[in-house]
Amino acid sequence: MIKEFTYEVPQIKQGYANQTLYVNLTDNTVRIKPVDQKMKDTFNGGKGFDMWLMWNGLPADRVVKWSDPENEICIATGPLGGATQYPGAGKSIVTTISPETGIPIDSDVGGYFGPNLKFSGFDALEIQGKAKKDVYILIDGNEGRVEIHDATGLPDTAYEIVRLLGQKHTKKEGADISVVATGPGAKNAWMACLNFSWWDQRRNLPRYKQAGRGGIGTVFADKRIKALVAKVEKITPEMNGAADPEGVKAVGREHSGEILELDSKQNRMRLIGTGHLPSIMNDFDLLPTRNFRAGSDPDAKGLFGDVWEKTFTNSGKGWDGCWRPCAINCSHCIEGFVPKTGPFKGQTVVVDGPEYETIAGCGSCIGVWNARDVVEINFYCDAYGIDTISFGTTMAFVMELFEEGLINEKATGGHKLKWGAVEEVLAVLHEIATGKGFGGTHFGKGIAYLKKHFADKYRVDPAIMQDIGMEHKGLEYSEYVTKESLAQQGGYGLALKGPQHDEAWLIFMDMVHGYLPTFEKKAEALHYFPMWRTWFGLNGLCKLPWNDVVPADNKQSAEPAKVPKHVDFYTRFYEAMTGKSVTGDDLIKMSERVYNLQRLLNIRQGKGLRVNDSNPPYRSMGPVTDWEYESRHERYDKQLTELGVDVSKLSTPEKKSKLRELRKERYRILTDAVYKRRGWTLNGVPTMAKVKELGIDWVPGVVDLVKRYEATEPPKDTLPKS
Asked: What pLDDT score does 488 carry?
């Protein structure tokens, strides 16, 4: 043991421990910071607390690099997190400065760590500095003790780390601990994830959820953290100190009962989870195939829900959710899987998932149509601590360059990266883990890095790579084809952290349900839904119970996209837990405060203005190649004709060019509308009036930052022409 710190475990009151834990690994400082009422009223919890801690903890006088000792990793749940009476109340939210983007990345993740952290006495964990050697941090909520341990010799994969730390620190086979770990790939890639463990009570073993996006695992490894452990022997319903325990119980029972009644008639989350999505996305031309070139493929049926229904293991054991009482129970797995490659070759393992994003990113997007191949890629991404979304989207980019003859085996370290080349894909993944070859030295740094690398060393045209390299702000796209959804183009392009669907997932309501038919509705949705979805991250909640199982009469409601009955559920839940009377509008206002502070932190980091929201890859807006246009020429010709363009005498390249001009103009107009709705200037800066309205003008440095940037003008080429 390097450091021991003892404390008195507080009683949780109305969802709050009212303190946070600070650890600096440079000098092994451990201390407790108080949480006052103003902090709670302004930032609520979860992501709000993370952003508040980072705003104050990071140096404000310079841009903080991801590898600086001053960079922080913050993990929090919220006042509703850890409730055992409500579905989806076991989430943690993790934030840091991303290696890929240079701005705050946040990742919402299941598992038991967030609740265990809270019931150990802390609303958030804030880690700064760098250790001189590998360490792990133990937070023992039973004994009131924080320990920093020498982790020299601890294995690299989460599977082995959890087993060994469970043997060392608990007599309950790990059921009372949750471990956060990454994997060996985190040392060699900027797209590393974190594995958060939870205990599968039926199988009597630990399972994992991933905080995937933006390289949080990379920062974790750079700080030389091998693991975080939070231990609480027993969690009971009364531990959250609800203001109205019976109210919490009542609304939780009502929401859970609805899920149990309706799930089998809707998306069957309890049976196949997000594995139900590939067939729907394919039907609506939204499933990314071969680097987002198209949205459907005849071979996609190999990845449909009926395949996953047969692939996921039940064996009479039933399912467990990644939080104890969750009625959705969508955390599926595959038992008895035997990898064909890598260090686990020939061994029998349990594979968590895969979820939709992995099925699409490591399947259809790279031309892999066999579920078993997707499962092996998924398993090794988790084992090595690699984000499946960034890995798949990056691989698709490299494969298209290879297929088009723009790079060759010299550029890929000898790998023939053609569509569907599973063995080659896995070979690159194994290289990331070892730090060798193309995978370990270049690929793992992502698309933005590779665009510069291929341009500088292999003279690939930067304009082509800008069009087809599916990243924005440095973050790889998650797995939805957005060419026909202006709403989702904005959902990705205007997202604070880069193109991740959890901030503004509008593709389903726009393209499947048709809830956003007008330009005005799309612009309004790009204000409301990022704020609404942010609210779940403030409170330690999963979004799936909100809209993956909906009331039977939801379509008859005034605003079905919002699922009004569930908004009412969440206001009741919040009131019963905290004792504060709220409306649905109040929940949005909570998120606006945090969202605007994050925007200002982006600006402080040098990447939060309109120019950073502009110029996403054109493939996210429309067809790049002649083949893309011609494969759906009736659709595109009709759209041009409706906009007054005579297509009869135009060649395919001419039609593509005209369509590009029109679609980029639509995106610029949408950006104007969204900024106005959010209370920002044309340059994307929250106005002084907005920060005062939200009550965040008291935050140190906010007023000075707004004064500095509010009057700045955006580049003219980012503004609408009409």
From this structure: 93
Assign residue 109 a region: left if phi > 0, alpha if psi is -120 to 50, beta otherwise?
Answer: beta
Q: Rg of the Cα trace of the chain?
A: 24
Tokens (6 digits) for 630: 């011609």
- With CA atoms as reference, report the closest residue to 429 among 207, 183, 693: 183
CATH annotation of 3-235: 3.60.9.10
Q: Could you tell me which of 208, 20, 177 has the C-alpha nearest to residue 109?
A: 208
How much is the pTM?
0.97
Average pLDDT, the chain: 95
- E-state strands within 63-167: 73-76, 92-97, 104-109, 124-128, 135-140, 145-150
Q: How would residue 167 be classed by pLDDT, with cut points 50, 70 and 90?
A: confident
Question: Which amino acid, one-letter code, is at 421?
Answer: A
Q: How many CB atoms lie within 10 A of CB 172?
A: 12
The Cα–Cα gap between 531 and 547 comes to: 15
CATH number of 486-549+583-718: 1.10.599.10
Segment 37-43 mean pLDDT: 97
Q: How large is the average pLDDT for residues 268-294? A: 95
Q: Identify the residue whose tokens are 């265990």.
A: 116
The pLDDT value recorded for residue 521 is 83
What is the Cα–Cα distance from 32 to 118, expressed in whole angstroms? 13
- Quick one: which of 225, 184, 211 has its CA closest to 71? 225
Say what the pLDDT of residue 320 is: 73
The CATH number of 267-476, from 2.60.40.1120, 1.10.569.10, 3.30.70.1350, 1.20.1250.20, is 1.10.569.10
Alpha carbons 189 and 534: distance in angstroms, whole number: 28
| Rounded distance between C-alpha atoms, residue 688 and residue 686, angstroms | 7
* Pairwise CA distance, residues 106 & 595, whole Å: 12
**Cα 527–chain centre separation:** 19
Note the pLDDT of residue 318. 58
